[in-house]
């Protein structure tokens, strides 16, 4: 499988949790907190595989968020020491290069032991839970308005839509210093309308 490249909805709740405390987090503490919020579910009937898949989803989201926050902020991704730094440490570039192989592993969905359909259903389930988490409007936004929110027009490519989603969601996330909860919610509603188009083909497999 080439890999399901849909957005991991854990990215935004993780940003909230990491911004809520100056201290570092441990992976299993993050997992427990997400489970409490109804955003982390059982992923496999076998305990060992369930643990691996939970860890994979968390690490995938953390490395995605790390890339999104750079170069303004540094997200340290260590299993027992996960923390956002407002000031980029002097050794951040070295750490980013050093962790390259591990980051690539967790960003490659083909390393997640599940069929394409299971991954799709899992992410759909997470999105449904996430809607409740942020209070997204149940009615889909009109496509034209959604594109306007994204500052795009009808000629926008799937790649441009997805890139703009991440840019605007990160910009307006309420836990950012200059964030705005209402703008963030509007961007999420626009993404709900546009995401099927932007992720079209993301779950295709190669022989």
UniProtKB/TrEMBL annotation:
Keyword Chaperone included in the entry's annotation: yes
Alphabetized UniProt keyword annotations: Chaperone
Keyword check for Chaperone: yes
Domain of life: Bacteria
Domain J span(s) in chain numbering: 145-207
Gene3D superfamilies found in the cross-reference section: DnaJ domain
UniProt name for this protein: DnaJ domain-containing protein
């Amino acid at each position: 499988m080439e890999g399901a490249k849909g957005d991991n909805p854990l990215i935004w709740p993780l940003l909230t949790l990491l911004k809520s405390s100056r201290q570092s987090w441990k992976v299993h503490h993050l997992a427990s907190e997400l489970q409490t919020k109804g955003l982390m579910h059982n992923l496999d009937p076998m305990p060992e595989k369930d643990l691996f898949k939970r860890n994979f989803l968390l690490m995938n989201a953390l490395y995605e968020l790390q890339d999104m926050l750079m170069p303004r902020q540094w997200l340290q991704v260590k299993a027992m020491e996960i923390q956002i730094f407002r000031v980029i440490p002097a050794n951040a570039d070295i750490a980013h290069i050093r962790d390259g192989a591990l980051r690539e592993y967790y960003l490659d969905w083909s390393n997640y032991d599940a069929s394409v359909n299971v991954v799709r259903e899992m992410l759909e389930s997470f999105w449904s839970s996430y809607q409740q988490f942020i209070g997204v409007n149940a009615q889909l936004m009109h496509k034209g308005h959604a594109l306007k929110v994204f500052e795009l027009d009808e000629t926008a490519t799937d790649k441009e839509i997805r890139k703009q989603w991440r840019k605007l969601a990160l910009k307006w996330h309420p836990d950012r210093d200059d964030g705005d909860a209402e703008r963030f919610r509007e961007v999420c509603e626009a993404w709900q309308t546009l995401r099927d188009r932007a992720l079209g083909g993301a779950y295709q497999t190669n022989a």
